[in-house]
Amino acid sequence: MPHIDITMYPGRSEELKAELAKNVRDCAAETLKMDKKYFSVSIEEVDKDKWEEHFKKYEGNLYEKPNY
């Protein structure tokens, strides 16, 4: 606890995803004033043609909404 789930289009390298996960974890730990060791981060890749269907499960749970 806490777990952070990142969903994005496929195509980024493993190195870039690892860097993103670390940076997001560090920012969340600082914001929540918690030790980094308590955080986990997952990255799920969803194809563009399946994005809208996949994203429906987050409706009502978004604190930051996209503007596209």
Features:
alpha+beta, globular
Could you characterize what this model shows?
By secondary structure, the protein is an alpha+beta fold. The protein has two helices and two strands, in the order βαβα. The longest helix is centred in the middle third of the chain and has 19 residues, at 14-32. The mean pLDDT is 95.
Tell me the radius of gyration.
13 Å
How much helix, percentage-wise, in residues? 25-40%
Average pLDDT over all residues:
95
Question: What is the rounded distance between the termini?
Answer: 31 Å
Name the beta content range: 15-25%
DSSP, total strands? 2
Q: Which structural class do the helices and strands define?
A: alpha+beta
Low-confidence stretches: none
Number of helices: 2
Question: Rough shape?
Answer: globular
Largest sheet: 2 strands, parallel
Q: Spell out the helices and strands N to C.
A: EHEH
Order of strands, main sheet, comes to 1-2
